[in-house]
Amino acid sequence: MGFDLSEEQRAIRETMARFAVERLAPGAAERDRSAEFPAALVSELAALGGMAMKTSTMDEGPGADNLAYALAVEAVARADASVAVIMVASNLSAAILAANATEDQRNRFLRPVARGERGALSFGLTEPGAGSDAAAIRTTARSQGDTWIIDGTKQWITGAAGAEVFVIFAKTPEAGEGAVTCFIVEADAPGFSLGRVEDKMGLRSSGTAQLHFNGVRVPAANVVGQVGQGYRVALGALAPSRVAIAAQSLGIAERAFELGLSYAQERQVFGQPVAAFQNSRFVLADMRCALDQAWLLMLRAARLLDNGIPIRGEASMAKLVASETCGRVVDQMLQLHGGNGYSREYEIERLYRDARVMRIYEGTSEIQREVIARDLLGN
C-alpha cells in the first residue's frame, strides 16, 4: 500500500520514541500509582512540538503530516498511554484552532503552544448527560454586548488538571434551536473552576476532570469559527483524532505484545519455556497477525488524510479495529503471564487497565460501527 516513511516521518518517530524511552517509561508506573498530572513531562513534550504537531510552519509548528503524527502518538503510548492521550487531546484542540482561528487567536493561543512555550490544550465537549449524544450538551452561552457568558459543566475532560487553555462547546440558542458555538476559555477566567479529578481505572495520570462554568465571561474575540457552527468546527477534526486514538491503541498493544513475547520465552514451566507450548505459540501468532491488520487500517486512514481525501468510515474502521485489537492483545498477553500478570508489580497489569477505555472514548465501538454502516449505506 506504499507505506514507506519519508526522512521527516522517520525522524519525528525516532525523536518521540527516544523521548518516550528516556523520559516517560522510567516513571510511568509511579505516575499510575499516584495519579499525578505529569506537568513537567508535558512541558518537555510541548517543547518538542508534541502538543501541536500538525500545526503548520506558518503558525510556528512542526508541520507534521497525519502519518508522522500517528507514529509519534504510537511511540509515546508504548511508554505512557496517559501522556499519549494528553497529547491527542491537545493536538485535537490545536487542529481546530489551525482550521478556524483568527489571526489574533493564533497569536494568543495556537502559536505559543506550537512553539512549546505553553503546555497542552484541552478539548471540552463531553458533559455529565452528553457523551455519545453530543447534541445533548446543556452548557449554554448567551451574548451580552461584546462578551459571551457561559454556564454549565463539562466532564471527562482529558488533561484538564494541567491545562491553561480550553477549547469548549456550548449551546447558543440565539443562533437557532440546537445551535452550538466553539469558544476558547482560559483557566484563570473569573467563574471558571476545575471540578473533581476523576479517579479512573486506567490512564490515571491524564488529569481527567470536570470543568465548571459559573457566569464565565468570554470576549467575543474568543469565538472559534462562526457563531452557531460549533458542530461543524468539531466534526472537521474528529476523523483525524480517531486515527490518533487508533495509533494510541496500537502503542499500548505493541508494548503488551513485546512484554508477552519476552515473558513467554523466559518463563519456565514443566521444565521448558511457556513459548514452547503450542497453545502459547498460536496465541503469539494470532495476536501478531491481528496487530498487523490493525496497523494497515490505521496507516491507510492516515495516508488518505495526507492525500486530502475526506474520510469517515475509514477513520472509524481504524479506531474500531485498533481499539478492539488492543483489548484482545493485552488480555492474551496478560494470560501468558499467568498469576504474575494480575500483580501491579508487572507492567502488563497497568496496560490491561489502560487498554479498556480505548473502546469507549473518541466514539465507542458501537458508534464506530454505526458510522461505518452509514458510510456503506450512504446515509
SSE topology:
Blueprint lengths: L6 H18 L3 H7 L4 H9 L18 H14 L1 H20 L2 H12 L6 E4 L15 E5 L2 E11 L7 E7 L8 E7 L5 E6 L11 E11 L3 E2 L5 H37 L1 E2 L2 E2 L4 H29 L6 H25 L9 H10 L8 H13 L2
Parallel strand pairs: 1-4
Antiparallel strand pairs: 2-3, 3-7, 4-5, 5-8, 6-7, 9-10
Overview features:
four-stranded mixed beta sheet; four-stranded antiparallel beta sheet; Butyryl-Coa Dehydrogenase, subunit A, domain 1; 3 domains; 379 residues; globular; Butyryl-CoA Dehydrogenase, subunit A, domain 3; alpha+beta; Butyryl-CoA Dehydrogenase, subunit A, domain 2; 51% helix
CATH secondary-structure class of the largest domain = Mainly Alpha
Q: How many alpha or pi helices?
A: 11
- Termini distance? 28 Å
Q: How many strands in all?
A: 10
Mean pLDDT: 97
The oligomeric status of these chains comes to single chain
CATH architecture of the largest domain: Up-down Bundle
Domain Acyl-CoA dehydrogenase/oxidase N-terminal: 6-117
Family: Belongs to the acyl-CoA dehydrogenase family.
Protein name: Acyl-CoA dehydrogenase
GO molecular function, one term: acyl-CoA dehydrogenase activity
